[in-house]
Request: fold
Amino acid sequence: MNIAVLLKQTFDTEEKIVLTGGAVSEEGVKFVVNPYDEYAVEEAIRIKERTGGQVTVLSVGPARAAEALRTALAMGADEAVLIDDERIPQDEFAVAGVIAAFLKGHDFDLVLGGNFSVDTGGAQVAVRVAEALGIPHVASITKLELSGGKANVERDAEGDAERIDVELPALLTAQQGLNEPRYPSLPGIMKAKKKPLKTLTLDDLNLSNQTIEEKTARVSLSLPPERKAGQILDGDMPQQAAALVGLLRAAIKAI
Amino acid sequence: MSKTYVVVAEQRDGKLRRVTLEALRAAADSAGENDAIHAVLLGEGLDASAAELAAYPLAKVHVIEDERLTLYNPEAYVLALAPLLDSLKPDGLFLGHTAIGRDLAPALAARLSAGQLSDVTAIEHADDRTVFVRPIYAGKAIERRAFNTHPWVVTVRPNNFPAAVPGAGGASAEIVKHAAAPEMTLRTVIRDVVRNMSGKVDLTEAKIVVSGGRGVKSAEGFKPLEELAALLGGAVGASRGACDAGYCDYALQIGQTGKVVTPEIYIACGISGAIQHLAGMSGSRIIVAINKDAEAPIFRTADYGIVGDLFEVVPLLTEEFRKALA
Reply:
């Protein structure tokens, strides 16, 4: 089984967002593997452990994203590819086009990714890649079994569980609950240093300029209005409960 | 030149989802006076929903009835929509940012070689340009983006646009029935759906969310929260802590991992208020916090706070609401 995992490096979810010069500041920020992509990496490694095969992790991003790829290698992925090129705009159409161009040259049975990225996550890139490759996809899966050239999956659809069979090759995106990602072990980290991590630019891929067209552009970036601390109620508990219901009553009636 | 917009409608049990009415409103916000807005429904048994849609100011309501579309199947939906989109040649496409919409939108965008903006919460017009507002980092920052090219695709976050209002004087749009392609070779088969949510309010569409954290202590501990939510017609949510501890399903998780919710009222019970959770709910209109720990960061975000044991406070609230709403 030849598996590709799409991975994005993102801010740790406990990070605050600071704007400098109209952009999100990266100063002092802790970066992690996008949590949903981590489930995808884990699932790929588990499949490899059961049935054998090769796991390639792939990211489009700046040089710092190599660190996230190393984490995936330390978890047990076999090789990593970073496509780092300033000409790639921050737009899902373009990013998906670049990823698809890379994948087209390789023979993957399964492509795994995260349900969305926790930073600018539009939940677009993976599904776009599937369309570009002409393979079926199922997004937001919480269970995966492989048998007879098919993936039997469960998809989380707003709390309902859809049971789906899909022919391979296919692209699947991971939802929380799919598995419990492992921490890289110390031997794993040591081994990862020797595993291949290739960095490519657009010149290494056969791409037309149309593929990296910037379909959307940022107009501005701002912080949300800050919420102020409100009122802490007092009195005994029944009094507080009654007071709160009084305060909320108008809002509830309006719904 | 006049433009064409298409709204991909969603229905559930013969009734249009509210997010579809919100998407209609988003389309109207984007459209000029001479532009045409079309709606399209896919599935089976769509007469009632089609009639409901026809009451809105639309150019046409398109209906694609086929048993292969009863359950959402991305491949079948894309193939069924392709001929209609080829003939309408829309400038813009609107979908709800729902289980279906967030999955279908990028597939359609890819087919149309279109740009897409996901999870849009508002549309503004500035300098002759339409600007789409979308929270990023789960709401820790707000981004405004615009499209460079046509066509484009937008998904709208539930609960943020006001619902469209039906046209005056019982206006009735023409309903056009289309056949799905007879030959669809599908590699995806939906075997069945386990309806965990039947009769329950969807978390992202709920007007009231009652949410539990580690303070709920067990799966059993969610009971009083469920009772309060049921009484108020709301949904139950959870923090990452509660999900990681196994008290509830990950489908309920609210936060930067999990879902972002923007209800009218958010009641946080036994939730400390980690930054990753706050990101997922601070767009709520009114936030109530109930926590034993007076120092919990959640109180710094809440409009109203009660320092106390949720197992005492929540049943009291349910009781008081029952009286107040009687």
User: Anything to note?
Assistant: Residues 2-212 of chain A form a domain with the Rossmann fold fold (CATH 3.40.50.620).
